[in-house]
Amino acid sequence: RLVMPGVAEEGYPVNVTAIAINTGKAGSGPFAVGLYLNETFYSYKVLKSIEPEGRKGVSFLVPELGVGEHEVKVCVDVFDEVKEVNESNNCASLVLKVRRVPPRLRIIGFYAPYRVVKGEEFLILLAVENTGSIVAEDVEARLILPPGIDFVGRERSSKPLGNIPPRKSVEVTWTLVGKEFGDYKVAVRITARNAPDEQRGLELRVLRPAVLRLDIRLVDLEGSEVRALRVGDIVSLIARVSNDGEAELEDLTLTLDLSQAEGLRLAPKERLSKKLGYLDGGSSQEVSWLLEAVSPGRSWIAVTASSGSQEDYEVVMVEVGD
Predict the structure, then answer these.
(1) Is the sign of the CA dihedral 81, 86, 87, 91 positive or negative?
(2) Which sign does the torsion angle of CA 262, 267, 272, 278 carry?
(3) pLDDT tens for residues 264-273?
(4) What is the distance between the alpha carbons of residues 215 and 315, in angstroms, rounded to a whole number?
(5) In 3D, which of 81, 214, 202 has the Cα closest to residue 149?
(6) Whose CA is closest to 16, among 73, 65, 88, 56?
(7) Residue 135's beta-bridge partner residues?
């Protein structure tokens, strides 16, 4: 028995399945199943055995064939390895009609960052394939933008993609910028002189830029805020860094400056600089340092938070007594 489609498209392989049936009372043992294309032997596969009154299938991938009709035939026991009661029913054949496919455009990729930051440039990538068997002529891609998103510089909405051969693809990009906060849908339309239009949309969000804010306070070991210490006291300097925007803060670093705090020193194993990495929009995080009061006098403790081009600086003053 032979299972396959009756019609195929030019340029695309076809799956052919042969089903071998053992109608006898004994197992078959190993044998080969052969595939013929237009009466020419093409390939074979070996089946180990079929149990009595059992069946097994084996599949072949028929390569690209030219336009027209082709005879596809499969034969079991093609090398005559099995002794059979009936040798006349080992082959089955069907006619496969291969037709030419007109140009058929398909968008295989339409990508942009889901979240972009207001005022920052970003790219949109489009990939288009011609899945037909005839050249798609004068292909053009047009990007349709909503208010709030704009092209950068001399970027144009429409871009010519030229002629796309069968089963080939073309890529194109646009450089855009978000002008206003909000959620948007961007669309692209593909046209050709000899193919139907194709359209696709994607969604993206324009975020408020990240806003770095820093607050610091000095607390004793019980958590109460202090402004005056005595020599020998141990205190904790707590820095709270916040992101008041929507976009992420990246490569966030907090640095402690004790150059104007001669009456204090860092506890053992503490480091002046601490890296936080990323901070999501609308979130905050605390970092602390343990300090020891070592000599009387007035001290100014400074902390700097930095992320890219953003920086915030805070100072707290403390009096150390005898």
Answers:
(1) negative
(2) negative
(3) 999 998 999 9
(4) 9
(5) 202
(6) 73
(7) none
